[in-house]
Every structure is written in structure tokens, then in C-alpha cells.
Amino acid sequence: MAGTWAFRFLLWYIAILCVQPQNRFLFLYPLRIANLCIILAAGLHFIAATQEGKPFIRFGPATITALLLMFFSFISLHVGAFQTSPAWNSDIDLIFKNCVVLILVEAMAWSVQRVWAIQATLLFSTIWWIKGGLRLAGAGATYSGDRIMGPAVSLIENPNGFAYLLTVMIPVYLYFFQKASNKYVRWGALICAISALYIVLQTGSRTGLLALGAVGIFLLPKYGAKYKRALIAGAIAFAIFFPMVGEGNIERFKTIPASIKSFLGGADEEADVANMDQDAQSAWERKMKNRHTWRLILDHPLFGVGIKADDSFLWESPYPFASGQVHNEILYAGKQMGLIGMGIYASFMLILFRFGARVQKAAMGWWDDVSDLGWTFKMQAVVFMVGGFFSPIPWNPIYLTLVGAVSALVPIVAENRRAYMGSSAST
Hints:
mainly alpha
């Protein structure tokens, strides 16, 4: 009983993380409902582990990597070159909280049903995002030009973050459309996927459009033969939605090839931004930030410059553009913790993609539902690879939650495969 309730509180924490109801219902702020849920989840899990004689922590690949992240982030907080204060701050707090969630996910997700429940919780929680995006698009709540804002949730309140994380959820919507037994759930999931497509286009986010394209490359061979009607519906929806996204957004999307060329080309550090439009200036500044941050990392390769470095040290340095947020997750991790941080970030990405592919392959032919779940994790990794190249949040809570879930899923599938093969051999 304690273990069941521990897992329920963990799912509630994930739901609160996605929806953040305290931003809408202000009376919830002093109740600290998120902290209460995670404390109860950890406490009840400890009681259950003690009663059942199970380990409190499962030292799987994701948990080990998370513990390394916690250790080295704490070291960087104290020895980072430009870390002027070792006091606990919002960045180290975010890292530790998200690592705790990852560890609890891997420890508690001891069955396929529980891993499925984590993805289902994300799906039902992000219906709030869908509702908010459609409402904002209908109301014309724009951020800049035709670009819609995100709902009042810190993860997605700006257009790029909204498009990025909503694209992460599209493979989950399609998984439920494919696998749900209830027809209303199936078609509801498809409506969510099509709505997410519309919202991503309405954000005017070039990052979101690139991530959609990356997922689409894998979607066509996956669903092309089996779900022709759904794909046709999606193609028709795209054809209808694209002209509706606003002239400003369409013009912004048209700049993608030129922006990529500029982004990847040689950097002119003395470029005159007065002669650039907003999109060209954005691409140039991102390029310069990446270049300067990489130089900074090479000069401070061991522990970086600190989890929350004092950027005033950078203003008169050879790399002033490395100050502030760096819109590249792996480089931002490197700024915080040097090459160690970049290695930890890449390890999480490898776990999510490689383990998703491993589950897909291991369950293929005898447990198709789980095989497709592995494919879903793999597609989410693809979105993180593309979107993370332009995002400033390396230790994204949804990212780490999914890493913990897929890490827990691999040994479960391996054990079930051995049992299946043994029963097949005996018959």
C-alpha cells in the first residue's frame, strides 16, 4: 500500500510540474503542493522499500548519472571560476530536485505498467498545454508579431519553449492513438497531436518546426502503411493550418535556410547588428554565444565557471557573448560544469535514445505495445537533440523524468524476454 501511494504522489508531482496550478489558483502557493508530493513520495517509498526488503535506490544507468550530476554540480557551485557565492541558488536547486525525481522514477517504475503510467501522466497533464495554446491562439495573445505566447507555466511560457516541449509530447499522443483500446481515447489522442501541430506552427518557432521535421522523418515509415487515414488527416491539417499561422510566422519560417547558413558559417564578430532584421540578429547572436561559450569551456574545462556564475567577469573578457543564458543545452551544461557537465548531458541523451531503441528491438515481435513504447522514447530523444540545440535548459525536468523511465524499462523488458523465450522453448 505504501509503495502504491508513493508512486501516486510521484505522478501527482509530475502533473503539478507540467500544469503548475498555483499560477492560476494563487491560494495554492503557500501550500507548496509540489514539495509536499515529492516529500510524501520519497517518504512512502522508503517505508515500502523497508517493509518489502527492496533497495531504496536502483543503481541503474540513469540514477548513477544523476548522482554524478548532483556531485559535480555541487563541486562546481564551490570551485567554479566565476562562482562568487557558494550559497544555494535556483540553478542548483533545479538540478537537485530534477535528479531526485529521476532517481525516484527509476526506483519506483518496476513494471511496464508504471512506465506507461508516467507517459500517460505527461499526456493528460499536457492537455492543459493544448487547451491553453488553442485559447491563446484564438484570443490572439501574441508575443511578437503573430507568435503566440505559451500558457502561464514556467517551462513553456515563451513561444520557443512551448513549441519545443509540445513537440516532445507528439510521439506520446501518437502512441496512445495507436495503442489505446478505447476509441474515444484513440481519437482524442489524435486530436491532441493535430492540435499540437497547429500550436507549434502558431508559435512561429523555427526550433519547433525543425523538431517537427525531424520527428516527421521517422513518422512516415513508422505509420505510413498502417495508419494511412491518420497520416492523410495530418497532412490535410498541416495544409490547412500553415496558411492560418499568420504572415509574420510564415516569413519567419522562410528564413530558416538563411539562418542555418549564417549560424553554421564563419562568424563576423564585428558585424553591424543595425543592418540586420530581428531574425538575422537572433541567428548571429546565438552563433556568437555558442562560439564564445565554447572558448570559455576550453579555458575552464574541468568544472566550468560555476552553476550560477557572476557574468560580470565575462563582460570585459575575450568571450563577452558567453554571458547570460546560452541557447544550447550542452554548451550551457559546459558553461556550468565544464567538459564534465557536457559529458553528463550527453550521457542522459544517449540513455534516452539508445535505451529506447534497445527496448524497441528487444520487444519487437512478441510485445508490440512495449516495442512501440521504446520507439516513443527514441523519438522524444530526437526532439531533445534538435530542440536542445536551441534551448537554454540543459537539466529539463521532463527530459530527466523520461531518462529515468526508459532506464527502468530496459531491465524489465530483458527479464520478460527471458521468461518469454523460456516458455517458448519449453513448449
